[in-house]
Write a structure and sequence with these properties.
CATH class of the largest domain in chain A: Alpha Beta
Helix content of chain B: 25-40%
Oligomer: heterodimer
CATH architecture of the largest domain in chain B: 2-Layer Sandwich
Number of domains of chain B: 4
Strand content of chain B: 15-25%
Radius of gyration of chain B: 23 Å
CATH topology of the largest domain in chain A: Rossmann fold
Number of domains of chain A: 2
Largest interface: A-B, 31 and 34 residues
Shape of chain B: globular
Number of helices of chain A: 5
Shape of chain A: globular
Number of strands of chain A: 12
Number of helices of chain B: 16
Helix content of chain A: 10-25%
Order of helices and strands of chain A: EEHEEHEEHEHEEEEEH
CATH superfamily of the largest domain in chain B: ATP-grasp fold, B domain
Strand order of the largest sheet of chain A: 3-5-4-6-7-12-11-10-8-9
CATH class of the largest domain in chain B: Alpha Beta
CATH topology of the largest domain in chain B: D-amino Acid Aminotransferase, Chain A, domain 1
Largest sheet of chain B: 7 strands, antiparallel
Strand content of chain A: 25-35%
Distance between the termini of chain A: 26 Å
Number of strands of chain B: 15
Distance between the termini of chain B: 59 Å
Chain lengths: 281, 458
């Protein structure tokens, strides 16, 4: 691989900037047998760090969206939220209170909680895990997406581990455990839930067809449901968008209470992601 | 056991079936063979349009019922829905999928009335046909009269359809198992917009000019449609897509392996025929092994970091009086496929592989005196006409207006042209050689100081 100065043209603004050529293929070939590892791109030879701690990304103060009388109120825990999760909730005309990752909402009035996606090792989110634990006696709908899925597992007493190969891309095949129905999903995660550590009251709802890892869990009696993939992905397949909403509906129908937050359609403008989970060696 | 009168195909090779009948594929002959062999089941989707039509006739004749023969894969009723234009339209309307506004007609009068409602020009298609036989653009009532008479001599119905001029033509290869698990293995985009048959078009896999919204909207419609129809195995769904509004129309669904499937299979490495045959036997997608990895299942959608260009080959010059114009009827006799890391690379490779004496877009044996005419009224050498037009100083915009070919494709041909000019004007050094070898269009443009003919198209 080598560095070159690139100029984008043909419809792009012409701007010179450095870029690397031949990098992706060289790296792919190297990593596909060895698994993920920490690395660095540098002009001089430097030793790559063993592990990198990813800072938690959140907001400093709660923000309320779409407030209004009579609207169902959802707490959205921001651990480095994908904007489309917020947009999908707002599309359902819910009042959304977006709160920092360490904000204790357990004393407040709400109809449901959504644990967002986010970067890094899920075990680092000790405060979020503690708050989730606190609100789990209440039979209020609790939905986790991506990192939220792992936080749900950790709050219930399970553990997570780092995958040899993270799941990245919008063509990840998954299977619903109960129906055997398969969907193509969009995923971007480097950690997974350890199935063996899941408490008895929980079951696996989705599995990845490539490596059989856990892609979703649900509580056997309470309306707690989470998935590792991104049903709201954009860009990405829409297979699970519908399915997800349906599963949630079932989840809430059982309780005749709370609200249903499904996932809306796709919207243009969601940026792609990268591996931000390089920590556990 | 296999019935196929074609001795020049691998399908009839010694080791492909226990017994091969080189017999004509018509109801009389095949009924006799079935009565003698008493098979448990028959497969219809590996014999192109001929086998589908034959299957429909066999079902109607009652022989399958009499002998207790099961049809594997897609049920005959579903095949009928995909082949009968009116049933197809009704089925898709039920799930809110859009098809082209059209009317079926069994008589000349009905056809004329339909065309009057839609307004000329209209598209005429015939049902139950292969290779767009008997179809084409109709500009006037008198033309319609003659053509409908001709076609109705062979088939029972024609379809008069809105003419979607300039719309993109896109297709998806879809695989579905008996439980309804569905994937789209690959999508393909035609270089030549609507009006030119897919078999006559240069085709790119995967699509290159669709937005995320368009790609996934069409993918979702494909899955919804195929699930609704209840196809089991492999099929292909074709769309017309408006280039700017994102509106679409489903053109047709082919419930069989086709030439497009062969292209999709080769372009992606997904063994479509193998998987389709397993699905027919009742296997689920997640139960079939992914033959590429050996570990995972066949329920996956391949991702490509290269692209495939399919180019048709015509032999029209062998027939002196033949019309060189191409359209909705198939005239090509074969095709080649080229893989490349960029569109120009694959395009140039495909051109060379055609074996028609062209060594790329710039070196060819055609004498094209009026390229713009061949661009506006496509002929078998339109691609070369585009290059000649660029040489004469015509802009990509003008070519786009005349042909409706997407600017993305044209800009890449412009890049090939620019590269040729630079190679002519400058000494060939290592950098220029590598640029040219890299398919002409790496975004790393070393000639940025030279004004580019397309640079202002932001």
């Amino acid at each position: 691989m080598r560095a070159v100065n690139c100029r984008y043209q043909n419809g792009y603004r012409v701007k010179a900037f450095p870029c690397l050529q031949g990098l992706i293929h060289a790296l792919t070939k190297y990593l596909r047998t060895r698994g993920v590892m920490a690395g660095s791109i540098s002009a001089a030879a430097v030793k790559a760090p063993k592990s990198v701690r990813i800072p938690i990304i959140s907001i400093p103060e709660p923000i309320v969206y779409n407030a209004g009388p009579g609207k169902k109120k959802v707490i959205l825990v921001d651990c480095g939220l994908k904007e489309n999760i917020l947009r999908s909730l707002l599309a359902l005309d819910l009042e959304v209170k977006r709160v920092p990752y360490n904000y204790d909402f357990s004393g407040e009035k709400y109809d449901g909680v959504v644990l967002s996606s986010g970067p890094g090792d899920p075990a680092d989110y000790t405060e979020t895990i503690a708050i989730t634990k606190k609100c789990s006696p209440a039979p209020k709908p609790l939905l986790g997406i991506c990192l939220g899925n792992q936080i749900m597992a950790l709050a219930s007493g399970g553990t997570t581990y780092k995958l040899k190969f993270g799941h990245r891309g919008h063509n990840q095949p998954c299977q619903e455990a109960a129906t055997k129905h398969c969907v193509i999903t969009s995923q971007n995660h480097g950690y997974a839930i350890d199935e063996k550590t899941l408490p008895k009251q929980w079951r696996v709802s989705y599995r990845n067809l490539n490596d059989n890892s856990v892609e979703g869990i649900e509580h056997k009696t309470k309306p707690f449901f989470s998935v590792q993939f991104h049903p709201e992905a954009c860009p990405g397949p829409t297979d699970s968008g519908d399915l997800f909403a349906k599963s949630l509906e079932q989840c809430y129908e059982r309780y005749q209470k709370g609200c249903c937050f499904g996932v809306g359609g796709l919207r243009i403008g969601q940026a792609g992601e990268f591996d931000y989970s390089v920590r556990r060696p | 056991m296999l019935i196929n009168p074609n001795i020049a195909t691998v399908q009839t090779d010694d080791d492909m079936a226990d017994r091969v009948y080189f017999q004509p594929l018509n109801v009389e002959t095949v009924s006799k063979i079935l009565a003698r062999e008493k098979p448990d089941a028959i497969a219809l989707s590996f014999g192109g349009q001929t086998a589908l039509n034959l299957g429909l006739e066999l079902e109607r004749s009652g022989i399958l019922k009499k002998l207790g023969i099961r049809v594997l894969g897609t049920p005959v009723k579903v095949i009928e829905t995909t082949e009968d234009r009116e049933l197809f339209k009704q089925a898709l309307a039920k799930i809110g999928t859009k098809t082209a506004r059209s009317f079926t007609a069994g008589t000349v009068e009905a056809a004329l009335a339909a065309a009057k409602t839609l307004g000329y020009p209209v598209m005429m298609r015939s049902g139950f046909s292969l290779g767009g036989l008997g179809s084409g653009r109709i500009d006037s009532p008198s033309q319609l009269k003659t053509r409908v008479k001709e076609v109705l001599a062979a088939v029972t119905q024609v379809l008069i359809e809105e003419y979607l001029v300039g719309w993109k033509e896109v297709e998806y290869e879809v695989v579905r198992d008996c439980d309804g698990n569905t994937i789209t293995v690959c999508n393909m985009e035609n270089f030549d917009p609507m009006g030119v048959h897919t078999g006559e078009s240069i085709v790119v896999a995967p699509s290159q000019t669709l937005t995320n919204y368009e790609y996934h909207m069409l993918r979702e419609v494909a899955i919804r449609t195929i699930n609704h129809l209840g196809i089991i195995g492999e099929c292909n769904i074709q769309y017309a897509l408006h280039p700017s509004s994102g509106e679409y129309r489903v053109i047709e669904v082919n419930a069989r392996l086709s030439r497009s499937s062969a292209l999709a299979s080769k372009a992606t490495g997904y063994p479509l025929a193998f998987v389709a045959s397993k699905l027919m036997l009742g296997k689920r997608l997640y139960e079939i092994k992914n033959t590429v990895t050996g570990k995972t299942s066949a329920f996956y959608e391949p991702a490509l970091d290269y692209l495939a260009v399919k180019m048709p080959r015509w032999d029209l010059q062998k027939l002196k009086s033949s019309d060189h114009h191409i359209g909705s009827e198939m005239k090509s006799v074969g095709e080649v496929m080229a893989l490349g890391r960029s569109f120009p690379e694959a395009l140039q490779k495909a051109t060379r592989m055609l074996n028609i004496g062209a060594n790329g877009l710039s070196i060819h044996a055609h004498d094209i005196s009026n390229p713009m005419d061949e661009i506006a009224h496509p002929t078998d050498r339109r691609l070369f006409a585009i290059y000649e037009a660029l040489k004469q100083g015509v802009t990509a915009d003008e070519i786009h207006q005349a042909s409706h070919i997407d600017r993305w494709f044209l800009d890449h041909i412009v890049a090939i042209y620019n590269t040729e000019q630079q190679l002519k004007e400058h000494r060939l050094d290592a950098a220029r050689l590598q640029h040219a070898k890299n398919g002409f269009q790496r975004h790393c443009n070393r000639y940025a100081d030279k004004p580019d003919r397309t640079a202002n198209s932001e």
